[in-house]
């Protein structure tokens, strides 16, 4: 029964991250459909309401998936406070901690990219300036990477519980 619940949790996390990734890429596509004028490295563009909504949805799904993975994954690595304790820990505990760290880094960068891309499409942001290309699609791709590390974290953390 526990294995079935674990598989469903992993499936839920992957589904949410994949949907966030797809929404991020779709937001980039919607953003590229609006009128814009480009001159060298400067660009003037109208904001895309569709890209704003899709980017906001992608950021929300990424955040929810991250919270679920961290809450249900537990805090098995909370007692590792030094390099010495890390070296003494079992390989599965080391893998779990590494995945946790990568999950947080990918989450921070991915959410930042989605937020920058989404905010550039806010209604009041019709502007000219340096081009901000591909923030939404890079954030979307990082959602897929986030899914891999979240599942790795969850699996390795539950494996350390059985030790």
Describe this structure in words.
- This protein has 163 residues and is mainly alpha-helical.
- It has one domain.
- The chain has 5 helices and 3 strands; from the N terminus they run αββαααβα.
- A 3-stranded antiparallel sheet has the order 1-2-3, with no helix packed on it.
- A hairpin with a 2-residue loop joins β1 and β2 (42-45).
- It is elongated and about 60 Å long.
- The relative contact order is 0.22.
Short descriptors:
mainly alpha, three-stranded antiparallel β-sheet, 163 residues, 5 helices
Quick description:
The chain has helices at residues 2-32, 49-73, 83-88, 91-119, 135-161, and strands at residues 36-39, 42-45, 127-130.
What's the domain count?
1
Helix fraction by DSSP (H/I, runs of at least 4): over 70%
Our measurement of the CA-to-CA distance between the termini, rounded to an integer number of angstroms, reads 19 Å
Characterize the quaternary organization of these chains: single chain
Overall geometric form: elongated
Structural class: mainly alpha
Compute the CA-based radius of gyration: 19 Å
Number of strands: 3
Largest sheet: 3 strands, antiparallel
Low-confidence stretches: none
Order of helices and strands: HEEHHHEH
- Tally of helical segments: 5
**β-strand amount:** 5-15%
Spatial order of strands in the largest sheet: 1-2-3
Round the mean pLDDT to the nearest integer and report it: 84
């Amino acid at each position: 029964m526990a294995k079935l619940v674990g598989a469903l949790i992993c499936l839920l996390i992957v589904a949410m991250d994949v949907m966030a990734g797809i929404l991020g890429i779709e937001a980039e596509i919607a953003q590229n459909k609006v009128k814009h004028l480009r001159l060298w490295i400067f660009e003037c563009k109208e904001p895309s309401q569709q890209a704003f909504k899709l980017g906001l949805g992608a950021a929300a799904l990424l955040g929810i998936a991250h919270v679920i993975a961290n809450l249900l994954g537990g805090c098995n690595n909370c007692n590792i406070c030094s390099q010495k304790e890390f070296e003494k820990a079992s390989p599965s505990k080391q893998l779990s901690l590494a995945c946790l760290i990568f999950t947080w880094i990918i989450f921070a960068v991915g959410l930042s990219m989605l937020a920058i891309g989404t905010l550039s499409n806010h209604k009041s942001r019709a502007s000219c300036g340096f081009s901000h290309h591909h923030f939404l699609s890079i954030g979307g791709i990082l959602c897929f990477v986030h899914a891999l590390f979240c599942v790795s974290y969850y699996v390795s953390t539950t494996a350390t519980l059985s030790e």
